[in-house]
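Ticket 4471: requesting a sanity check on a complex prediction with S-adenosylmethionine. Repro inputs:
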Amino acid sequence: MPYSAKFWSAAPTYGEVFYARAVGKAPEMESSKATARQLKGVIVPGSHVLDVGCGTGHYLRSLRREYTFPFSYEGADITPYYIRLAKKAYAHDSNAHFRVASIDDLPFKPRTFDIVLCCNVLLHLPDIVKPIRELWRVTRRTMLIRTHIGTTNFRIQQVPEPAVLKGKKDPVFRTNGEPIRSNFFHNIYSERYMRWLCGTLPDVADVSIEQDKDFDPHALGSAQWPEEKKPGDLTEVWNGMQVHHYILQPWCFLRVTRKKDKAH
Ligand SMILES: C[S@@+](CC[C@H](N)C(=O)[O-])C[C@H]1O[C@@H](n2cnc3c(N)ncnc32)[C@H](O)[C@@H]1O
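Returned structure tokens:
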């Protein structure tokens, strides 16, 4: 199991917060509302939507609120606990299905889904070439990715302290400077690199990159949470930018559309 996946398995409280959002016991995420709005005119009655790295399917709550017509939703996530919670949250929704799957090897035939979403996942992975190819392989019309895109590339690796590693007392870094056990990132890719990467995909009609400024700054940050329920790792807002720990986050939506194909 890649470390990035271990990180999520070892973070059950994320699942509980995601679950509370999915069932309406906590507010929808700003990014989930923004993602739903991004699909205006793209999602239509009968659309098949795949959400990769879906957590507990909490984005479906925003999609169902925004679009009341019928569409099907499939959520895929590498963390089995999140998928169990997702199935519980949407037991009443016969058009929502969830499965454990890795973004590196999606268990779907090519072009199965009209719309493929992947939000807040790619930045954390050590490599995005195979994941983007997989997402695109299963996309029939539109792939919408939310991740950090800026003017240059930064590889930002989060290295946990021994206290976080359940009492392990190792020195965290090897003598060559490499972390002993971290494969969890907050990477920023340049717009040029992202466009280059999308240019290697087959049958692309259009690539667009838009900064995600579609959030209410008052809805983010720790101030809105009661002390006893406050999740760790909250996003704050500083000068109009979202901040995570020390990192200013250049959140963007990358949208890739496929050429119309007579055979499909
Ligand atoms: C930051 S959370 C994002 C969840 C949700 N999309 C959101 O924006 O709130 C990252 C999610 O990606 C999942 N994930 C991490 N690595 C993955 C992989 N290789 N394949 C599929 N899902 C993965 C994690 O289990 C977690 O649910």
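Notes from triage: The longest strand covers residues 139-150. Leaving this open until the requester confirms.
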